[in-house]
Amino acid sequence: MKPLMLQGHERAITQIKYNREGDLLFSAAKDSKPNVWWSLNGERLGTFNGHGGVVWCLDVDWQTINLITGGGDSSCRLWDLETGKNIATIKTNSSVRTCNFSFSAYQAAYTTDKAMGHPCEVFIIDTRTIDDSISTQSPILKWEITDSKVTSMVWGTLDETIITGHETGDLIQWDLRTGKKVHSIKEHTHQINDMQLSRDGTMFITASKDQTAKLFDTSSLELLKEYKTERPVNSAALSPILDHVVLGGGQDAMEVTTTSTRQGKFDARFFHLVFEEEFGRVKGHFGPINSLAFHPDGKSYASGGEDGYVRVQSFDQSYFDYTFDYNRD
Amino acid sequence: MPVADDIQSSWADEVEIDQGALPPPSEVVENGLKIVTEYKYDNDNKKVKIVRTYKIEKRVVSKSIAKRKTWSKFGDSANDKPGPNPATTNVSEDVYMQFITSKEESQRPDDGELDGLKPQTSSVIFKCRTCQGDHWTLSCPFMHSQLAQAKASEAAKAAEAKAPATNKYVTPFMREGGAGRGAGREPPGARRDDVAAIRISNLSNCAVEADLDDLVKGFGPVQKLYLAKEKSTGRCKGFAYVHFKFRADAAKAIQTLNGYGYDHLILNVEWSKPPQNN
């Protein structure tokens, strides 16, 4: 299929996400305006104007009513999706690196960077009613993380825990009633760039700069599978319908000039979930892929790259016909 | 009489205006297709017509999605018309998934940082015609020596030997281990001296001993060399005998030189036969 090229950003894409039903695709970039697109035809629904700098993260609630974004202008913003209005702006001490609605969207979590003399902090806010009072309301819970910066985060089962991925490669599960660590593991040696839940939320996949992506159990943080590549992995996503994993990455932008320009480094790479073996690649980007997302129906996926483009690629029939050869012995 | 006011501009100006103005863009919707036609200048300042054809589809979706579809555009897209705006949305070229079989993947060497820059030392795509080495025929070090010929044929033989036996019919004579007449077989009653002797015939009349020496010295040490000459003229009679030190060298020489073109003649080389009349 011919991919759709979405050229709404002037700078590198930082994160892309579909809403629950998959009709809308959200993209955030290092320019200040997150975009929302109709995923079917790539038509742009609108832009969310208001941030004053890079937007690191975004998330949409399950009913597709509100959007939360966090950026380098030390603010976390909530938006009304129908009109694109900025409902509330939460000022923070340093830039907001990750933000996520909980499954029920009754709460949201965001984390800030360790910068400008301020520590890395995790905030849980109440988002049952979203209006401008959120800008001033104090968080339900907040705690400091002293050792290393949080670079990615997902909500755990039943909105009882959150799992943070760190700059050092640590994964920590936090209990939201107490704000204390439940589990802490270190399976990665470098920064965890991205974490994405499986469709049912029982597993999540991490993408790390140590050139691997790993699959973990959400409740016990048990390491289940490992997918190895030979380049830093910036993003990994799990197919909602097949036992497939897609990995995207490439060298850091600063290292691109010192290494070979082989196109293959910027491919989206498909691995089998269980056998941990690569079976396919899709070319397209001319820079590292920064963020990947499967459409909730599993029939297409989107990738956002350092080149500033979002590519929405529908799968051909050959993808669905492909079966992985293995010995049953 | 034409009135001066009627002439509003000279024809030259008109032409210029025509060139500057582009026809207005048009949009036609007909039988499920939307056709948008635009004009613009390309990099070479030439007028370009761009026709984009969109297929209008109807899809059945859930209520919530249908409701969202009625939302009006906002932010930087507030002024966009319905349908994708070509400024932000494009369809790029076909990209297909490349499937990788697991074997290829595991056998492939680790992607080196500078893979593409390495010279292709391991997989040479050309081969010397003379000696089968990793260089061009022109720069072959054995180019002028007969040794090379021998080498080449040896290589060819090795390759042949490696080739699996076909189930073609082979005459008993040609079969491996069959009675290879002549070559390789010691003539009965041969004198010890003649064991490594070969007879070269169909030599040119102008051949001299030095030529012959050149021809055979590549194969190994030569014990004796006899070029038959016409007594009266001193010219070559057309054949010669060469006694090698080793039989193997002689066999090699026969194999290589038999049928070898030398001085516009094709040489005939065989084992020297013992004199029949004794």
UniProtKB/TrEMBL annotation, chain A:
It is found in: Cytoplasm. Gene3D superfamilies: YVTN repeat-like/Quinoprotein amine dehydrogenase (2.130.10.10). Keywords: Cytoplasm, Initiation factor, Protein biosynthesis, Repeat, WD repeat. SUPFAM superfamilies: WD40 repeat-like. It comes from the Eukaryota. PROSITE patterns: WD_REPEATS_1 (PS00678), WD_REPEATS_2 (PS50082), WD_REPEATS_REGION (PS50294). GO terms for biological process: formation of cytoplasmic translation initiation complex. One of its GO terms (molecular function) is RNA binding. WD repeats lie at residues 6-37, 48-89, 185-226, 282-312. One of its GO terms (cellular component) is eukaryotic 48S preinitiation complex. Signal peptide: none annotated. Component of the eukaryotic translation initiation factor 3 (eIF-3) complex, which is involved in protein synthesis of a specialized repertoire of mRNAs and, together with other initiation factors, stimulates binding of mRNA and methionyl-tRNAi to the 40S ribosome. The eIF-3 complex specifically targets and initiates translation of a subset of mRNAs involved in cell proliferation. Component of the eukaryotic translation initiation factor 3 (eIF-3) complex. Belongs to the WD repeat STRAP family. Belongs to the eIF-3 subunit I family. This is Eukaryotic translation initiation factor 3 subunit I. It comes from Galleria mellonella. The gene is EIF3I.
From TrEMBL, chain B:
GO terms for cellular component: eukaryotic 43S preinitiation complex; eukaryotic 48S preinitiation complex; eukaryotic translation initiation factor 3 complex. Residues 196-274 form the RRM domain. It is found in: Cytoplasm. Keywords: Cytoplasm, Initiation factor, Protein biosynthesis, RNA-binding. PROSITE patterns: RRM (PS50102). Residues 1-25 are annotated as: Disordered. It comes from the Eukaryota. The keyword Cytoplasm applies. GO terms for molecular function: RNA binding; translation initiation factor activity. HAMAP family: eIF3g. Belongs to the eIF-3 subunit G family. RNA-binding component of the eukaryotic translation initiation factor 3 (eIF-3) complex, which is involved in protein synthesis of a specialized repertoire of mRNAs and, together with other initiation factors, stimulates binding of mRNA and methionyl-tRNAi to the 40S ribosome. The eIF-3 complex specifically targets and initiates translation of a subset of mRNAs involved in cell proliferation. This subunit can bind 18S rRNA. Component of the eukaryotic translation initiation factor 3 (eIF-3) complex. PANTHER family: EUKARYOTIC TRANSLATION INITIATION FACTOR 3 SUBUNIT G. This is Eukaryotic translation initiation factor 3 subunit G. It comes from Galleria mellonella (Greater wax moth). The gene is LOC113511676.
